[in-house]
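Each letter names a residue; structure tokens follow underneath. Both lines appear below:
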Amino acid sequence: MPGNEELIVGLDIGTTKICAVVGEVNPDGIDIVGIGTHSSVGLRKGVVVNIESTVDSINRAIEEAELMGGCEITSVYAGIAGGHIKGFNSHGIVAVKGNEITQKDIDRVIDAARAVAIPPDREVIHVLPQEFIVDDQDGIQDPRGMAGVRLEAKIHIVTGAVTSAHNIIKCANRAGLDVCDIVLQSLASSEAVLNNEEKDLGVALVDFGGGTTDLAIFRGKSIKHTSVLALGGNNLTKDISVGLRTPIGEAEKIKIKYGTCLTSGIGKDETIEVPGVGGRKPRTLSRQILGEILEPRVEEIFTLINREIYRAGMEEAVTSGVVLTGGSSLLDGVVDVAESVFNLPTRIGKPMGIRGLVDVVNNPMYATAVGLVLYGARFQAKKKFRIRDRNIFNRVMARMKRWFKDII
């Protein structure tokens, strides 16, 4: 197995699951060599609410990925989501020093564009260049080497709550991991499921996860708008639990096995067995009832996303259509509902552009984790976030304690 310097690990810290994907960087591309998943109980709507539970879930997912990949994981690219995420566009102008635009000029104009007032309880997660303008000539992706006297930049800034970002870093650090970078989950997913033609023509990526539904709009190969809606698959599960009077765990199983959000496709004689609460006898109900619970909720989530697209004035930018990804996009009939709400062609986005364990990760629920690996390979961030140092001895001792605890 190659050394750790050739490995990139994506850590998707989600509301329903924590997933670690190990990618090996080769001259020909990226091979997925390991994957580990564990249920997540320490997050709510994409935000950490229990440090200890989250750390334990991260440890178990990392151990599984290490075992499969035959390596030791010391650093990760972590995803971030939640209703606290806000994105907005900004614009900057500088005079070019000399006759030719250099990297220093690009850095200066981006600094000028990001010089906006940000509340002290928020921090910048991403500064994403959209396009550059040289002497009124717009649509330039890379102005280096061009002649000009005035350089403008349009950028997209993503901010998040300081506490939420620090809690993610703290959880990773307590699991013995360095955080190379924090990446917006919808941006990471776009690396895995969108192709260049869609990004150029205009596309809306909807990451339909367990705790949140993330929106990212691309046009001209650059990101134009981001938004996070604090509704997701967990809301569907709760609706089933309340509507059918069954425990949350059983409601999740029913959603996965029998769930559909297209009532027109359900046969009249189709039935499901619903376990009771508190020892009550299970009941047999029509599957039509399940569809009538799920369809309005999915329509509501997509309608809120559609309103956000119109609120941002991006309805004309989404030319190629909508790409759905995330674990909740596996729900039967979700594409049909999306097409009726957005009135645009819709497809399910699965990770692509990778090799290795393709069959294992060929699922929308792994889009963010695989995208984090692709993002890391593309940008190779030098910065590392670390709040609390922890040496390898302490890490090994902690892992041994967990093993003995599980045995006992």
